[in-house]
Automatic annotation (TrEMBL), chains A, B, C, D:
<keyword id="KW-0560">Oxidoreductase</keyword>
<feature type="domain" description="GFO/IDH/MocA-like oxidoreductase">
    <location>
        <begin position="132"/>
        <end position="252"/>
    </location>
</feature>
<dbReference type="InterPro" id="IPR036291">
    <property type="entry name" value="NAD(P)-bd_dom_sf"/>
</dbReference>
<protein>
    <submittedName>
        <fullName>Inositol 2-dehydrogenase</fullName>
    </submittedName>
</protein>
<dbReference type="GO" id="GO:0016491">
    <property type="term" value="F:oxidoreductase activity"/>
</dbReference>
<dbReference type="Pfam" id="PF01408">
    <property type="entry name" value="GFO_IDH_MocA"/>
</dbReference>
<comment type="similarity">
    <text>Belongs to the Gfo/Idh/MocA family.</text>
</comment>
<dbReference type="GO" id="GO:0000166">
    <property type="term" value="F:nucleotide binding"/>
</dbReference>
<dbReference type="Pfam" id="PF22725">
    <property type="entry name" value="GFO_IDH_MocA_C3"/>
</dbReference>
<dbReference type="InterPro" id="IPR000683">
    <property type="entry name" value="Gfo/Idh/MocA-like_OxRdtase_N"/>
</dbReference>
<feature type="domain" description="Gfo/Idh/MocA-like oxidoreductase N-terminal">
    <location>
        <begin position="4"/>
        <end position="124"/>
    </location>
</feature>
<dbReference type="InterPro" id="IPR055170">
    <property type="entry name" value="GFO_IDH_MocA-like_dom"/>
</dbReference>
<dbReference type="InterPro" id="IPR030827">
    <property type="entry name" value="Myo_inos_IolG"/>
</dbReference>
């Protein structure tokens, strides 16, 4: 039985999740993990998982002769150089989203991957969620006819720490980028134009960093459909992740997942438990499936389910949204990059 | 346009509801109302409704030459003689449930109605509820195949006053009789045997009057199906009226009606409003429809939707359940009457 | 007991519905009905309702000495002159929405009403719907904190006939105007800016008349909240009328009403019946309540629940949306009227 | 880190599931597996899991010096002797339900376990289901007051093969035994009396083996509550596993789990996907948790969550139900064993 040998760059929360998910497969060995802050703690973690090499130097992984594939789970600013190095070294790559905050750089990295002929999968984990997959299947099968209106709700239970706000890249690039990918995924069409309305309603710290915490974005798709995404950095009732596609022959709607189906009726009200709290709970199975499909793509030389091009498109839309929010007008996705160059203010 | 002229005997809550519902029809005139406690208040009520005659004497209505149909909304012990008198006077009859506490008397009354050739409809209002009608339609259309299991939940929000407990006839004859009729209605089959388990869990007053306040009754139907009804005199969250029919090709289930569809999500829980509080709210439209169908049956000489025979059957099942609860064993519906005669203790 | 005497101008579908709803009250007499096409059919209809006067001339109603209040249910282009005449004649007025397609005219009419000191209620029936009322109550009571995002879905089961498309005033003024009013009602805040994206996806006839059949509109509210309304002229599954308000302490969401709660489970799927088909079914009780509150406002000299100012605001937002859709940019509600004057093209 | 070393007796479907679930824990080693039909296939299966010993002889496991705990996943008739042997050998035991078809034997086995001082956990996996755990928590916390009515629905998607029907022990001992345990679990009270009504509605093969395929059983609990369980061997829409506890202060109800939350609305109906198909899908996480808690009980010397006494009680109730079904009368759980001895016909 062939095995894929993996190196993981970045041993933060998501890196460790991917590691444990990969270890569920009998066709995976994790040979090495690198992290800038590698130390005894990470070594202990690696030991219980039989991961032989722990290092601060990602180069050791990239140039490791036995490693087939690299998981890039380090901070966003490191993604592009790491992709380029890994591609040149002939390694397959799984990279967290977004590839970068700079589309030109993202495009260069993806081009390098293409030239190297290795596989690159982007970590848009939500595509693997049981609910959103079902939406996509129904739409693709024609079950609701031609899509007319796509609605995506995506709200976090808690805003990030202020330290993160500074470097997040803003709500459109950091948070809504998942929804831009979802919009493309469920509609089967490209987004051509966006109009973004945002506001700071939760924490003034967002304003201090030129960001918003609440946003409503209108989308125009190539197939004529219209869409809307709403984001909030703080839904006190928990992670709110819903999608609706309305079309000429009907609609398909998915609601949140809950920890149980219990309904409690008392003299006061009818009550049920809040949705699964956040992405770790909600997307637990989706994270497993995305890594399994990556391994499967390598083992059986299939297309990866989320390509570098998917990463580029989502970033383009996010950039257009960011510009729209600043300029107060709709922005075409195709004009975003040019507009950015013209506008030093953005 | 032909009009049906009505007399209403018994101007309590349900009598007044029927009156107002009848007045919605342009084909109905209410000529008279009688009540043992008729007085200025009832006269004022009647005046605003253009009801000419208010009397303490039900005979004035029964023998009124212009009255076509009598609504019997007085206490249960008066039903049988009033039905007999009205039938002999050639009036059509709408009678509240149960016809009586004594099946032999009920049978005599129904026989008299048959002989007189007038129409008699029994007030099993729940057959006209939008939810239960849909269950019956689905079952009758074969949508779930042959019925295998019938489940009926019926719980009141509050127990009745102790004064009423004394004269109610007990939970099986007073409350569960609706569910026995529902069981026949949705299954399309006769109940052949019952086993009743009851207990006093809410108010010891029920025990003092030889009654129970909580009951679970198993049913065996002629078509082989099994059923179960559960009753409670006190569901603190409101009126609980649900039905499920499970069959060889699937199931159909109806849940409660709510005052609105609002779902409120907060940091504590997901909450919605309690069901419609009690029968007046829940069966408002059903009460209207049952009287309209009675009027329609007279005007167009159709069968009434709930016959005297339906009244008899429900009483027979209720008696069997009462005996089963006392004897601690299953009782055949066909043996109930004979068993009652043998048993002076019941 | 005091009675309000009503005259109804316009005996189309909605005029007749209001008439029958008014007749449910013992405090209302309908003295007259006028319609341009009055004839034997309307006379027969009026006769069964004891309405004495049937005429083609609305002036007969407006100047009828015994009439207290006028219902204006005729075509939109007649609303302004009829309001002005009725106000001058000292009659209270219930007028269907929108007051007119021309805000200047609407403002003149409302000013005239104010001067005359009569009551004017606008027919935004949805404010009286059990679901939307509950949303408004929850928001107003602070149950979800400060509103951050308001989402309104409003889709018709079938597009109107092409004859109507021509004269409808367009989707924003004809259909979404209800949602603009709803946005103000549930948020408790004024809409300051809109961005409208529309498309023709259902029937090219809309394009021929400069209209769209599918639209997504972003709203900015004075209190900082953001909103989005989506409209479609054709939801094949039936009337889709949902609202969600998301705030700092939670959210409140209402879904559609259904004819029953039946859930059918078979070997294929779990199925339930479609929502109530269209506005007549969905808003049946809301129509009753809006007329009852109008009567109550007159009888007890209370404020009407939907004022002329509410009518003006909704029209202003609709105009801004129409302009936004044409201009392809966000439009402030405050600039819409000026913009319209500048732009002969709109 | 201490590890528990396991031997698994019986490598059928459930044995293999337990093995894989156990292997998720870093504190478990599986040393051996035995099966009467052990062969190359099982050896290959064991090899990929690093299980060193594969044998046909369960004695090799029971007397293996390094094995701490035995999983008994072989056929029901082997449970009692294996428990006795394992207990005498000082091994902790996890045994699938039911312990046996013969309560006297079950009692002897449990007594032997007690004497040996080893741990014995019975495989009532449903206690670990997220929904049923929530019901139990709500009831135990007093959230619904005193339990009055317990309702359990348990229906399989497909009947078993006729070969299995012969040896299953009948619906009460084979299938409803889970529900008897659930009744005790969620009510926090012992079942004192049962009345079982059964019928053959799905497959005459059940009748040929003295069994039924559809059953409704009434329960009386020590705390006064009443209960009802309904079982069907064939719910065409999938595995139907629901529980409701109704009490003095409210109710808690759990419905089925579904593969996704998608709701599809079309011109025909509103549709969603069927429940998770069968126990492997529905109880996947519950199976994992029951083995984890068993391991935890051994490692930390805690009580097991489902004891031998729990196994005995469920069997007693099942026996009473079987007798009730045959005798056509309610049977006290305390009299069942005596009744069985008297009755050669059962």
């Amino acid at each position: 039985m062939k095995k894929i040998r993996i190196g993981i760059i970045g041993a933060g929360r998501i890196g460790k999740i991917h590691a444990d998910n990969l270890l569920r497969s009998s066709q995976v060995d994790i040979l090495a993990v690198s992290d800038l802050f590698a130390g005894p703690e990470l070594e202990a973690w690696a030991a219980t998982r039989n991961i032989g090499l722990v290092t601060k130097d990602s180069n050791e992984l990239i140039h490791h002769p036995d490693i087939d594939a690299i998981f890039i789970c380090s901070s966003t600013d490191t993604h592009v150089p790491l992709i380029q190095q890994a591609a040149r070294a002939g390694k397959h790559i799984f990279c967290e989203k977004p590839i970068s905050m700079d589309i030109s750089k993202t495009e260069e990295a993806v081009a390098e991957v293409k030239q190297a002929g290795v596989k690159l999968q982007i970590g848009f984990n939500r595509r693997f969620d049981h609910n959103f997959k079902r939406v996509q299947e129904v739409v693709e099968s024609g079950g609701i006819g031609d899509p007319h209106i796509i609605k995506i709700t995506s709200r976090d239970p808690n805003p990030p720490h202020e330290d993160y706000i500074k470097v997040s890249g803003g709500i459109f690039m950091d948070m809504m980028i998942h929804d831009f990918d979802m919009a493309r995924f469920v509609s089967g069409s490209e987004v051509e134009e966006v109009y973004a309305a945002g506001n700071v309603l939760i924490n003034p710290a967002f304003a201090e960093h030129g960001d918003v915490d609440t946003a409503v974005v209108t989308l125009r798709f190539a197939n004529g459909a219209l869409g809307v995404i709403d984001n909030s950095r703080q839904a006190v009732y928990g992670y709110d992740q819903r999608v609706e596609v309305f079309g000429s022959k009907g609609s398909v709607t998915v609601s949140n997942d809950h920890p149980n189906t219990a309904v409690i009726a008392t003299a006061d009200a009818i009550t049920s438990d809040k949705p699964l709290h956040f992405f770790l709970e909600r997307y637990q199975a989706a994270y497993i499936e995305e890594t399994q499909m990556f391994i499967d793509a390598i083992l059986n030389d299939k297309c990866v389910p989320v390509s570098g091009e998917d990463g580029i498109q989502a970033e383009r839309i996010a950039l257009a949204a960011k510009l729209s929010s600043r300029l107060g007008r709709p922005v075409k996705v195709s004009e975003a990059l040019e507009l950015l160059k013209q506008s030093s203010a953005v």
